[in-house]
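General statements about sequence and structure are easier to judge against a single worked case. In the encoding step, the backbone of a single protein was reduced to a row of integers, each denoting a local shape. The record that follows shows the chain in one-letter code together with its fold in token form.
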Amino acid sequence: MSKKGRIITWVIIGLLIIAVGVVLITQLMNGGARKITRTEFEQYIENAQYFDEEHNPNVVDGEIRSKLDDTVLEGYKVKDGKIVTADDKESALTVIWKVSTSGYEYTGYVLNDKGNHIKAYYCYGPSSYGSDSWDSAKFDKWQFELGIVIDQENPNAGSWVSTAFSVLMLVIVCVVFFLIIRSSMGGAGKVMSFAKTKARVSTNIKVRFADVAGAEEEKVELAEIVEFLRQPKKFSDLGARIPRGVLLVGPPGTGKTLFAKAVAGEAGVPFFSVSGSDFVEMYVGVGASRVRDLFEMAKKNQPCIIFVDEIDAVGRHRGAGLGGGNDEREQTLNQILVQMDGFESNEGVIVMAATNRADILDPALTRPGRFDRQVYVNLPDVKGREQILKVHARNKPLAPDVNLRNVARLSAGFSGADLANLLNEAAILAARADKKFITNAELYEAFDKVAMGPAKKSKVITEQDKRLTAFHEAGHAILARLCPNCDPVHEVTIIPRGAAGGFTMMRPENDRMYYTKSFFLDDICMGLGGRVAEEIVIKEIGSGASNDIKQATKFARAMVTEFGMSDKLGLICYSDDSQPMFIGKDMATRNSFSEETAKMIDDEVRDIIKTQHERARKLLTDNRSILDNMARVLIEKETIYTEEVDLLMEGKTYDEVIKYMEEHENDRATNPFKKYES
């Protein structure tokens, strides 16, 4: 615990002690050592000494005698209806109780002598009240002056049980308040430890490189880090400096966090994991304090690995916030920079971080000496996808005819997380169907669910909407087959999935690294096919093509402004990625070109889309019979696959295609991946 934390702890303990002391003092002042009930007081009056009412019912003057033994109360007498001392001064006896009964007034007296010996007396006279009464104002004064309390309601008042109960309740309240404060401040059960790191420490990581599939090159780069941690002397003898940090960059779900755990598991060193957002709080200086605490813990456990997930939450460009920056976040970043490459030595501490936004990180963070290496974890290729599927299928019973290679070929563009989710969804579907094994049918349905969302087969669709969707998707499918650079069509459906009323699924046969101008033009043409089909057949256009238009515009503008695919504008990039980052780059966009150039860009984008729209119209008009037959089949069967698309493109009629589907319906239900087998 830090010095500041210890001080705060002792302050709280001191306040608790003071609170308990105040309660005890109050209890002592409120009656001291003696408290009695009203019933007990009445008994005092009845059983103690009395005026001798039998001899002198209306005592005016005389001695005070005991009714019990007729003894005289030495030093006191009654004179003119008042109790006085022997020298005729008013007595120290005090009236504390009055009650009227049967027309007579009874008055009780208590004498509190130096020995705290209490004697009670009473006398009576003509009633002045006529009914029972209690003088509460004098009662409060008497109980303080006499050192006793007469409790009229609570029989336990004034007892040690009552005092102890009051103190106990106060202590309980203070303890509960104390625990609430401690929990609100966080910090692994330490008092007021909100400035402590929230890192989770793992000392027995079981993840190995064998558990990370589909990234062999990345493993080679990270294997050197393992060697640094295992045998640092091997490298230091040759003058090699151990890398301070490794930055893992890649799309979400590619296994960056898993790679970091695998490095720690292979090296057998402690693993400190924390999120970038865990550093920053509303209190100034907390983030920097947590960074210092994290590195102090790491130094005590070196060699070790510190892993910061989503480091872009704290490591983005300084001065990029609204109004010039966020002081707290920048202080935290500055502390990270100092700890990674400052005056202190952290030879046995390697910092690993993950982000999918390396473009917004501060340059001081990514320079050599801090994050010396940047490892790019890309989406897996077909071989990597198959390996990943095999890893996640270890604990899942697959049917004997399942071939994960077919699933891998179909799932181009899927990340490792997507593939894990695919197998999990397949297992859920198999369990729902009370199956003992995961079959190809569940895998294919799971693929559609992950790619497009769950099928909404129960949704009521009007015949008009069904017809419009059928022609729309048929337009996409036909142009995808007629445009040579488009990906193959695998499935066409008018069953709503996710936010789409239907979809045409096209999957590449091979993984692409580059895209040509012809590909973009064909893709734009194919994307406009749904809208053109509506124009030709329905003679009315709907809102279903909004996403198609947005995608076509995006591709056309990228061709002109980024890829240099415009003859008019030439090989110039008009897309500026170095925008000021306030709330976001889009909030502060500025053009680095003239208004005339901007108009040329808009004209060129418009020409590209117009040309491909006319091309799509001509192709669909020339193949109108195929369009009508495909739409009819979709309305009837709702979903068609590669085989049906091929038959329709060959000129087969509606009846022929329907017959083929009915003959092969069982085969497809058993193994939907059969067409992907090589």
In short: The radius of gyration is 45 Å. The first helix runs from residue 3 to 29. Residues 324 and 413 are 39 Å apart (CA to CA). The chain has five domains: 3-30+161-185, 35-157, 200-376, 382-452, 463-676.
